[in-house]
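Methods — Computational structure assignment.
A single polypeptide chain was analysed. Its primary sequence is given first, followed by the predicted tertiary structure written as structure tokens.
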Amino acid sequence: MGILLNSVFVILLFLTNYSLAQENSDEYSKDRFSASLGGFYTGLNNSVIVGIDQLGIGLSLELEDALGLESSAFVLRGDATYSFGKKRNKRLSIGYIGLLRKSEITLDRKLEVGDVVFALETKISTKFNLEIYELSYNWGFFQDERMRIGLGGGLFVMPIGFSIAANENESDFLQFTAPLPALEVSTEFYITPKLTYTQTLNLFYIRFGTFEGALTDLNLNLEYRAFDHFAFGAGLNSFKLNLEAKEELFWEFDFKGSVRSSYFGALFYAKYLIKYKE
């Protein structure tokens, strides 16, 4: 991670120096609408504690090690943003990430998950799905020709599922949706009229009774506007999620246990843009 961040810093330093030598004859375009689609190659780390109340202390599973889920994957990601307001400083955004993973292994030891026991040499199929739907509002409290700094908030809705199948019988150990609000801080800087650096940070933490939840989502991107309506970008994305509930809290949140999920990866995307009409 340190090497990647240092590389981004070196690239930014080079591009900034390069931009100072260019003539700023082009306008710094402001976009009313944008939609991007891409993917990122990411390292993954997931663990689950199933049935804290039933098992007393719960059973902890490191999914990559215990169940053979790959520790890296290529994941699709998409988002769209609409800007509005007299000062063009308000934004609504939606986004989606799908971390849909599965594996098949033959157990080299007995495995107990909750009250289900899988015998030695049993062939099992494991699924761990984490989908992230994001809706956010951002207000640019500082904005000039080349820079924008914004504050906002959003809602992360995350369906989470974990199941193991053996001998054509599938057991669902997790199946719930976690809705978590988050505070958003964003910056945007035009290095040149065609090259933009953006960063977005979403943070959330709450402790309510026996429930505790925390979320961190950091995006660092460089984007090059190759044409009037098309741009290409690359960046880094880090995401961490921690959930723990010792009793059922809501009618739609019937999970008792703990989920820890994180990923870090390099992002590549293409973007379609529509400028404001002057």
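Note: Helices lie at 2-20, 52-55, 63-66.
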